[in-house]
């Protein structure tokens, strides 16, 4: 395995931390910045919006660039944004910094897996992709709960600063460890920019991505504000929130593997229907049993499992749609997929914040259930029109099993 693939994994670890750490620190950050909790949730929205914009549009714009040049740029943008966020003294500065960091996130994940697979060669391509996204899932399983604990004990600023340091290490590793591409590799994407931009606005691809947006929005409507829900309604301590985050992260990593196996066995459509329906039921349960510590522990874990188990099926489904309707735009389809997940996170955090401000924190689970149910309805309508029948057996094992 080329050593630079492990550098990709380190960068993916930093991206996973950056995207999800603020969720566990909403109370702490709100108190330090003297703002409301729902305003801190907008920091999650800003990051996800940056990734949503960057994944398809910047992937298309840089289609003719060498992969090393693209990845160095993404690592630099991410690092600058993350460090700036650590030093933010007000909400506006924090949101701008988070949006910039998110732009680096979206473009990096849109190209990292394909680059790793090409560097490793066809016989080790799957393993290379697994190594890259292993860093992301490791961040979810271990990095986020540890960071949540440290942020509560010390401060949130060193935690965000450490994320920037990981990004800087990734940049140096790429600069020194990634070889310059050959002339043939430099020409791989040349001339595809116009075609790539056209694929972004393909209505069939966009409609398919809407399922991902709504399914994930429902999940993150509930999860973005899980920390204040646990402390205010479930009545656990702020330090115990880290334990819930650990359960979520471990089962999210497990769900990633389970989702791929389910998709291979039952097909991407059936698996997507079952998992999005599961997200709706789980978030509904988080509304009904929010006062029970045991029930919330189980539900938070299941939410992590179902949310990330849905990733391989939804990825495979969108790639399958691209195979039929935009066969030369797989890179853009991957970017749209990442954009769909991050748009869902942004929408979910916004809906959760609006719910918190109007109805109260205990209703975020109900709002999440309704949004996920809407995503399920859209998916069933698409299947009823037989838009997905021809790509039911899309193989998932060669696709990156993470949203980014």
What does this structure look like?
With 404 residues, the chain is mainly α. The radius of gyration is 20 Å and the shape is globular. About 5% of the residues have low confidence. Helix 6 runs antiparallel to helix 12.
Q: How many strand segments?
A: 0
Largest sheet: none
Spatial separation of the terminal alpha carbons: 22 Å
Strand fraction band? under 5%
Order of helix and strand elements from N to C terminus = HHHHHHHHHHHHHHHH
By DSSP (H or I, 4+ residues per run), the number of helices equals 16
Question: What features would you highlight for this structure?
Answer:
404 residues, single chain, mainly alpha
Topology:
Blueprint: H1 3-24, H2 26-33, H3 37-61, H4 67-86, H5 91-120, H6 125-153, H7 156-177, H8 183-186, H9 193-200, H10 203-223, H11 226-234, H12 241-266, H13 268-288, H14 293-325, H15 330-358, H16 364-384
Provide a short characterization of the protein structure.
The chain has helices at 3-24, 26-33, 37-61, 67-86, 91-120, 125-153, 156-177, 183-186, 193-200, 203-223, 226-234, 241-266, 268-288, 293-325, 330-358, 364-384. It is mainly alpha-helical.
